[in-house]
Specification:
heterodimer; A: 113 residues; 6-stranded mixed beta sheet; B: 114 residues; Immunoglobulin-like; 7-stranded mixed beta sheet; 0% helix
Chain lengths: 113, 114
């Protein structure tokens, strides 16, 4: 089934803490997993992405952890800043059908100073 | 660098009226193009995709249609708007070849149907 589940729906962390956003999927053909963030009034912007050949991808304060066996992946935002407050969407795609990018329901992140 | 432009920025339309939204990408030859819809506070739902001029595939039926009249242009339209069409319409593009998985979104068009 082509569905991506995302949790929590909303998350509040203090400035400097690590925010952890979680996603899971069922379709074994998914092989590309991007995260997007969306600020109020703006369109989604690509943040970071991973392929299952690796179980970790880092880009500055943002890290994706990937567990292929459990079909789960998570985004860790280290040293969270108030400017990170946004809605974060995980997504998944099967390269064999590259067009069909399936999004999770989103996590609204608030970083409190 | 690639730039993606959507028009109009926002629209307020009456139920039953026609609609046409546009998307143009510059700086990228023969991109894959996509239309998405996002309800207020909701997630993104892919509507259509196109890999070449004149060819459009429908992903979900929402009483909308799409066309790709030029390599760099993607049009979303309907003859009769419904209240449920309100939301944020996003055009996206991806490269062809090995980087085709990564999709980039345009600025979007906000639509309110009354």
């Amino acid at each position: 089934q082509q569905q991506v589940r995302q949790s929590p729906q909303s998350l509040t962390v203090w400035e400097g803490e690590t925010a952890i956003l979680n996603c899971s999927y069922e379709d074994s053909t998914f092989d590309y997993f991007p995260w997007y963030h969306q600020f109020p009034g703006e369109s989604p912007a690509l943040l970071i992405a991973i392929r299952p050949v690796s179980n970790k991808k880092e880009d500055g304060r943002f890290t994706i952890f990937f567990n292929k066996r459990e079909k789960k992946f998570s985004l860790h935002i280290a040293d969270s800043q108030p400017g990170d407050s946004a809605t974060y969407f995980c997504a998944a795609l099967a390269s064999s059908s590259f067009s069909k990018l399936v999004f999770g329901q989103g996590t609204s992140l608030s970083v409190v100073p | 660098a690639q730039t993606i432009h959507q028009w109009p920025v926002a629209e307020i339309k009456a139920v039953g009226s026609p609609l046409s939204l546009g998307c143009t990408i510059k700086g990228k030859s023969s991109p894959n193009l996509y239309w998405y819809w996002q309800a207020t506070g909701g997630t993104l739902q892919q509507l259509f995709y196109s890999i070449t001029v004149g060819q459009v595939e429908s992903v979900v039926q929402l009483n909308l249609s799409a066309s790709r009249p030029k390599d760099d242009q993607f049009i979303l339209s309907t003859e009769k708007l419904l209240l449920s069409h309100s939301g944020f319409y996003l055009c996206a593009w991806s490269a062809t070849g090995i980087n085709q998985d990564t999709q980039y979104f345009g600025p979007g068009t906000r639509l309110l149907v009354l």
